[in-house]
Each structure stands twice: as C-alpha cells, then as structure tokens.
Design brief:
338 residues; alpha/beta; Rossmann fold; six-stranded antiparallel beta sheet; five-stranded parallel beta sheet
Length: 338
C-alpha cells in the first residue's frame, strides 16, 4: 500500500534543475516534482548543468554525484565559487551514504543531501525547504537593493539641500557685502571692482563685466577674468573691449538692456539689467557658473544681486556727483528721503 505524499498548500513553488546522467533517474524526479507544482529542467552532465545555471538560475539544484566528466562535487564547487550563483541551494543526490562522501559534499558547498534510492516524501520536503530558503534570500536581496536605492535617493536629497543652503548663504553674504559697499565711501572704480568680485564669488562665474550706457552705446566700464581667471582688468584693457548698441542687434547685453529682464544664451553667458526704480543703469554680464547654465534658482539669485548692485551704483554715483559740487547738504537730504 503506497502512502500519499502530503504537499502543503503554502509550499513556495519554484524552478528545479535535475542533474543526472541516468535518464530514468531524471524522469522519476521530474514526474515527482512536476506533480507537486514545480517547474523542472534537466541536465545530463556537469557541463550542461553549468550552462543552464549561467543562463537562468534555478531555485534549487538536485545534483547527482557519480557522473562522467565533471562529477557532482566538481559541479558544486564551480557553482559555489561563482559569486553570482553561490547562493543557489544544492541538494546532492548520491547512493553513497558514508561519512567521507558527505564530508566531501559539504566541502564542495552542498546545502543538503538525498540518498538513493530516493524517498518521495523526503525529496519533496527537502526541495520545499530549499526553495523556501532561496525565496527568502531573494526577498532579502530585493529588500536590501530597495533600501540601498532609498538611502542613495535620500543622500542625494540631503546633498542637494546642503548645496542649496550653501548657495543661499553665499547669496546672503554677497548681499551683505553690497549693503556695506553702499555706505563704505568707495569711489566708483572701487565699487565696480568689488561688485565684480561679489558676483564672481556668489555665482562661480569665470568672467564678469559691467556695461553702462553712454549716448547710444553700452560700454564696458569694469571687467574681471577676461585676460586671466580671477584678474581685474586695468582701465586700458577695459576701454579696449568692444562697445555694444543700446538698441538693435542680437547681443545678449543689448537684449537685456532693452527688455529690462535677465536672460542667458547657449554660449554659457547670462546677463541682468542694473535697474534702479525705472532707470536702467546698465547691464552686468556673466560667463560660466550656475546662472549661465540656466539653473532657475541661480538666475533668480543673479537677478536679486543685480538689483542690489544697482542700488549701490546709484548711491555711489550720486555721492560722487554731490561730492564734486560740494553740495553735502543735498546729499544728506537725498539719503534721508531714500
């Protein structure tokens, strides 16, 4: 009287690779496992088994020991030595039941043993446990990968937040320097030079130029980084820079002066008007840096700084004009009214 083999409804089904040079043994195991709901593939020797494992790894391998060519121990070692397949459960199926054979199997990396002639119930229970362990491994691996992705995403968010904070601190420091400059008593050339340094530092620009309107042209009045990185150009070098029309033409500086709105172009340049109330005092142009890369927040920072710079230029220009006429009372009244 044969005993029915119990199969638990919660048994995790999976893919089983049966490796045996005896066709009858493979057929027997295939029939048993397929009846229990497993997907079964076969290999008739060690080399074929390794090829199948590299192609689509099964959830568990039933591996015969006594095979021509590569025996089961050699196949087992090959699979366990490969990091991509080392986690695969291997059940060695052998007619050998002595201690030395089992020790050799353990040394080769086998996870469990089945002894021939096989016991149907034992095969199903051991395969069930092996597949379950493999599924747990896969779930844990998937969880770890998801966790790594989340950690990486959160780390990136923190870096971006820190970067934004750094940029905000730079902007505040730049605006503080502009406010100080407004009351520092610096002359116009000194004011130009400090504005150039502030914009280059806050916006990481390679080159900064200030243009002011003279009759129908926009002429460069100060420049940094034209001849060499970080260097302020002397008056002769600045005067040699080409003037641009206030109206007409496709130059970025002309466009920004005409529209009164900041803009950037594909050549890595950005420009913003120096607006004091309704009066356009000129244009400041950058090359390189975040604002020239069309980053929205950097362009907004550029726009805010340009408004602060316009206040500074207006105040210094008025101070110089009044100082030249000696009308200090008018200067005091102007400062009180503003």
């Amino acid at each position: 009287m044969s005993r029915a083999v119990p199969v638990l409804s919660s048994t995790p089904k999976g893919r089983v690779l049966v490796v045996d040079d005896e066709r009858l043994n493979r057929t027997l195991l295939r029939s048993l496992l397929q009846a229990a709901g497993y997907q079964v593939t076969e290999a008739e020797d060690g080399e074929q088994a390794l090829q199948q494992v590299r192609g689509e790894a099964p959830d568990v391998i039933l591996l015969d020991v006594m095979m021509p060519g590569l025996d089961g121990y050699a196949v087992c070692r090959r699979i366990k030595e490969d990091q991509a397949t080392a986690h695969l459960p291997i059940l060695i199926v052998t007619a050998l039941n002595d201690r030395e054979a089992r020790l050799e199997g353990i040394g080769a990396g086998a996870n469990d043993f089945l002894t021939k002639p096989i016991d149907r119930q034992e095969v199903l229970l051991r395969v069930q446990n092996a597949v379950y362990a493999k599924h747990l491994f896969d779930e844990n691996l998937s969880y770890q990968r998801d966790l790594e992705k989340k950690v990486a995403a959160q780390t990136q968010e923190l870096r971006q937040a820190y970067s934004r904070l750094e940029e905000q601190v730079k902007e505040l420091e730049g605006r503080d320097r502009l406010v100080y400059l407004q009351s520092s008593g610096a002359d116009l050339p000194g004011t130009y030079a400090e504005i150039l340094r502030i914009f280059a530092g806050v916006l990481a620009a390679r080159q900064v130029l200030i243009y002011r309107p003279v009759v129908a042209e926009l002429k460069a009045v100060a420049a940094l980084g034209v001849s060499a990185p970080g260097s302020l150009e002397n008056p002769e070098q600045v005067r040699a820079l080409p003037a641009l029309p206030c109206e007409g033409g496709d130059a970025l500086v002309t466009q920004v002066f005409r529209t009164g709105q900041p803009a950037c172009d594909a050549r890595g340049q950005a420009a913003a008007p120096l607006l004091y109330r309704e009066e356009n005092l000129g244009v400041i142009r950058l090359e390189g840096g975040a604002a020239a890369g069309e980053e929205e927040e950097a362009l907004n920072t550029f726009w805010r700084l340009s408004r602060e710079a316009a206040l500074v230029l207006h105040a210094v220009q008025i101070a110089e004009e009044l100082s030249a006429t000696g009308d200090l009372e008018s200067l005091i009244d102007l400062e009180e009214n503003e």
